[in-house]
Write a sequence for this structure.
């Protein structure tokens, strides 16, 4: 069976009953690209690591398997890591699961339960296990036509855990990477881990973003902690001049400025150029109501329309601030993807609808200062360019999640020198030191404390600037892709050598 490749920057074809896994093509990006932002010693170490990996990997392929090619942090991270990995002449390839809505409903339930949240409240019984195994058995048939003995396979998140045994039996060196979890035990999380354990526990290695996320059965001899990272040169994070930021936001209707006309070009991940489309012609990207004034201080949260991201809570907390300060000029923008563009998240439509209902219930004077934006996913690079412009335009970026494995949008905002107000949960508490490079909210349900933190950063410009400078330095030190690539190389070298594991 052959697997037709697709271009990462085009839509994945609609899945049918007999569809197959799709390969995502990522253009190589030279390691030298990072030299402009990294200290010379780190550039030298990265090049040494790449050279050592090339000599030890031989003709092995490193395969990555995930549930979607876009719409989440895992997909964004893979785009970066594979680009630089291929640029280092390590053969990295990426396959996306073929699955149906019932499968994604089950795995979304697992995702929520691992965070201690019931999700849709459905069971994880034999029927769910049977469907999970059936879908992954079909995907395994495709994988076994591609993966050779000795290849390394990195399986991402609960959606892929059921592939471990079959790939190991075929001679693959299998790593299961789980990007979600919680710091403290919880009965729902325990139930989800028990569901996953028969599938995942025989992996050659495990990778978690935090040690606390790993279940007890993931023994330390096979476990590695690797936090996610960003690419400073991706369309999401590339430096943009203020005039470009304003032009992009005006063109797509996210501010009330005039579209400057002409072409707003950007470089795609694949190396060719793209242009921001004039979405204003279709009413702009604001879901309800007009866009904010160009000069208004903007509070922004960028995330999926996911209940655990608590977009409705952010809206309510900002509304409380606006009611207490009716003369204030700040506006809020909640930014998420168009919900039909995220294939593995069945909750998106409902969460966006909840936000819209909450928005309509606000008093008129508050509703005028709150904006919901849905960014198209049909062009991933354009989507990234728009999000980049929104984050750079923001005065404050927030991430008031109720649960978070690792806040990639937090890292992105910190890289852009923005003060971040975020929940003290999960990986976010590793990314931010309260008062030094951001502000942490101890209880994400405490809307009064959230509103108070927002007011503090909005009014104290020196504090905002100080936090932003320190945030950029923190990301440069710890969360740029060279750190991530070196840890992957170390893990893969150990696998090739026969450890960790068997």
């Amino acid at each position: 069976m052959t697997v037709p490749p697709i271009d990462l920057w085009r839509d994945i074809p609609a899945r049918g009953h007999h569809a197959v896994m799709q390969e995502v093509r990522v253009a190589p990006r030279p390691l030298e690209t990072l030299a402009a932002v990294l200290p010379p010693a780190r550039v030298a170490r990265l090049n040494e690591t790449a050279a050592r990996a090339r000599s030890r990997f031989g003709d092995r392929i490193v395969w990555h398997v995930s549930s979607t090619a876009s719409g989440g942090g895992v997909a964004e991270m893979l785009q970066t890591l594979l680009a630089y990995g291929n640029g280092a002449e390590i053969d990295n390839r990426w396959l996306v699961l073929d699955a149906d809505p019932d499968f994604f409903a089950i795995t979304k339930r697992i995702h929520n339960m691992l965070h201690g949240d019931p999700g849709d409240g459905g069971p994880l019984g034999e029927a769910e296990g049977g469907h999970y195994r059936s879908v992954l058995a079909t995907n395994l048939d495709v994988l076994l036509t591609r993966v050779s003995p000795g290849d390394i396979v990195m399986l991402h998140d609960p959606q892929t855990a059921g592939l471990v045994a079959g790939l190991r039996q075929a001679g693959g060196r299998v790593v299961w990477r789980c990007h979600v979890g919680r710091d403290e035990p919880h009965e729902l999380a325990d139930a989800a881990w028990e569901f996953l354990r028969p599938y995942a526990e025989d992996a050659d290695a495990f990778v978690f973003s935090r040690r606390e996320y790993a279940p007890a059965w993931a023994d330390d001899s096979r476990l590695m902690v690797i936090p996610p990272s960003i690419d400073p040169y991706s369309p999401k994070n590339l430096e943009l001049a203020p005039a470009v930021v304003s032009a992009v936001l005006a063109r797509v209707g996210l501010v009330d400025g005039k579209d400057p006309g002409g072409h707003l070009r950007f470089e795609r991940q694949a190396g060719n150029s793209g242009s921001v489309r004039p979405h204003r012609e279709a009413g702009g990207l604001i879901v309800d109501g007009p866009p904010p004034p160009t000069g208004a201080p903007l509070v922004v949260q960028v995330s999926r329309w996911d209940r655990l991201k608590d977009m409705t809570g952010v809206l309510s907390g900002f509304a409380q601030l606006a009611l207490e300060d009716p003369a204030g000029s700040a506006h809020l923008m909640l930014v998420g993807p168009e919900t039909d563009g995220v294939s593995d998240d069945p909750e998106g439509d409902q969460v966006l609808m909840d936000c819209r209902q909450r928005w309509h219930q606000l008093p008129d004077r508050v509703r005028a200062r709150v904006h919901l934006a849905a960014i198209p996913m049909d062009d991933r690079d354009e989507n990234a360019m728009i999000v980049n412009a929104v984050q750079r335009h923001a005065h404050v970026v927030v991430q008031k999640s109720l649960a978070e494995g690792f806040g990639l949008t937090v890292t992105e905002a910190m890289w852009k020198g923005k003060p971040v107000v975020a929940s003290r949960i999960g990986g976010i508490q590793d990314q931010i030191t309260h008062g030094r490079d951001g502000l942490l909210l101890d209880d994400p349900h405490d809307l009064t404390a959230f509103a108070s933190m927002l007011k503090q950063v909005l009014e104290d410009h020196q504090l905002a600037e100080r936090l932003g400078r320190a945030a950029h330095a923190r990301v440069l030190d710890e969360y740029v892709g060279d750190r991530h690539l070196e840890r992957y190389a170390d893990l893969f070298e150990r696998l090739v050598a026969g450890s960790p594991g068997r």
Observations:
- The mean pLDDT is 91.
- The chain has two domains: 39-229+481-496, 242-478.
